[in-house]
Description:
Number of helices: 17
Mean pLDDT: 92
CATH architecture of the largest domain: Alpha-Beta Barrel
CATH topology of the largest domain: TIM Barrel
Helix content: 25-40%
Strand content: 15-25%
Structural class: alpha/beta
Bound molecules: iron/sulfur cluster
Shape: globular
Low-confidence stretches: none
Number of domains: 2
CATH superfamily of the largest domain: Aldolase class I
Number of strands: 17
Amino acid sequence: MSKSKFSISISYPPLINSKGIAFLSQNRQFQWTNTGNYIYPIIPAYAATLLQKNNYKVFWDDAIAQKLTYFQWLKRLIKNKPNMIVIESKTPTIKSHWQIIKNIKNLSQTKYPDWHPKIVLIGDHVTAFPLESFDNCPVDYVITGGDYDFMLLSLANHLTKKTKLEPGFYYKKNKKIVNSGPFALKHHNLDTLPIIDRDLTQWKLYAYQNTNYKYTPGTYTMFGRDCWWGRCTFCSWTTTHPAGSFRSVSPKRALDEIGQLINKYHIKEIFDDTGTLPIGPWLMEFCQGMIDRGYNKKIKFGCNMRFGHLDQKQYDLMGNAGFRFILYGLESSNQNTLDRIEKRTKVQDSRKTLAMAKKSGLEPHLTIMIGYPWETEKDAQTTLNEARQLFKDGLADSMQATRIIPYPGTPLFKECQDNNWLLTDNWDDYDMRQPIMKSSLSPQQQEKLIQSLFKGVLTPKFLIRKVLSIRSPADVKFLSTYAYKYLKKLKDFPSSKI
Ligand code: SF4
C-alpha cells in the first residue's frame, strides 16, 4: 500500500532554560535537569509506529534529545512542513508550548501560506485543563487521556478519511470549542499495537544517557498503562490513566519484544516504565519466560514496584529472571502521610520489602518527597533519618529526592484548592524549584532537607560497600557515571542560603 501524503511530526521542541534541560517526556514530575538523562518517550513512540503502519508519513522530532537549537528545529520543521504537529506538554512547560504554537501558526500564515499544520497538544496538564490552551494559543486539537497512540490514529483517520473521532478530543467547530465526550481507555487493547519501531523513533538517542541503565545500550519498554494501583493523590499519571483503566500486554508479547531488542538491537538492559509492573500470574509467567527463553543470561531488566506486594519466592524468581534495578516510591516515612496520599503502604513495609529484594540480588532505588503541607520539620527529619538508615543497612542502592508538586488534575491539586494551600497559579513555577503549597517549612528549609537527603545517604559504610561491590569494568563505569550525575543532580536543587 502506498504511503499517505499526510505527514505527522511527533515533536519535542527545544526548551531553553538557564535551569537545565527539560526532563519532559514520561516523567511523572517535571524538572529542568543538569544530569543529561534522557527518557525514551514510549507512548509517543507507539504512536509514531502505529501511524506509520497505517501508511502515514511520520517524523520523529525530539529536538530536546537531539540537542537542537530552537532555530535549527524550526528550520527543519519548515522544511518538512508536516500536516500535523503533536506536542507533549506538562504543567511547567505549557506556557512555553503556547508561545511555540503561536510562532508556528504565525509563520505558516505569514510566510508559508500553502502550509496549514494542525497542532495537537497531549499530556496530563491539557487533560486536566483542556479548554485553557484554546484561550492561550491557536492549538487545533487537545487530546485528553494518556493513550496518545490510539487517539492520534483516530485523529489522522478523521482528518484524512472523515471517520468519527473517538471520545476524548477537544477542538474548534464553528468558532466554538466542542468535545467528542469523556476519554475512554479500556477498549484500547495494548496487544493490538505494533511493537515499537526503534529505528523510526531513534532509539540510540536514549540508549546511553540514563542512570536507570548499568549496562548499555539500554532501552525502555512499557508493558502496562499505567499503574494497577493508580490512587496516589500526587501522581500525575492518574490524570491520564485513572484508577481502573489499567491494561497490559500479554507476557508472551512482552517476551517477544525483549527477544527483538536482544537479537536486533543488542540491548543489554531494559527499564520498563509501567507505573507499577503487573504482579500475580502475569509476573510469574513473564519471569518464567525470561528464564525458559534464556533472556535472563543476555539482558538485565528494571521496573517500578510497590512495597508490600511480593514475597521472597517471587523476588527470587525475579532475580533469576534477570531483574536488576527496582524502583520504589518510599515518598515519606510517616504513616500519616502515606495514608493521606493514598499510598496505602505501611512504613515498615519498606524495610521488609527491600530486604527481600536485596536478598534476591536486586538493586533498589528509592524516590522520596519533601514539602507535604501537613508535615513538620520533625516529620521530614524522620524520613531523612529512615532513608539514611536504609542506605547504611545496605537495603537501597540509589535514590532520588524531590519536592512534592500538586499537578493539575490530581486529587492533591483539588485538596490544595479546597484548603487554599496553593501559593501560585503561574504554571512556570511548578518545576520543583520552589514550593507550590503552603508548608510549615520555609523554601530554604525544604532545599536544605533535599540536599541533606542526597548527601546523608553517602555514609562511609555505604561508600565502602559500593566499592567492595565492584566486580567488572561495567560496575566501575556505572558507579563513576552515577557519582557524576548524583553531583549534577544537586544542581537541580540550588543550595540553601541558610
Ligand atoms: S504507585 Fe506510583 S505510579 Fe502508581 S499511582 Fe502511586 S505514584 Fe503513581
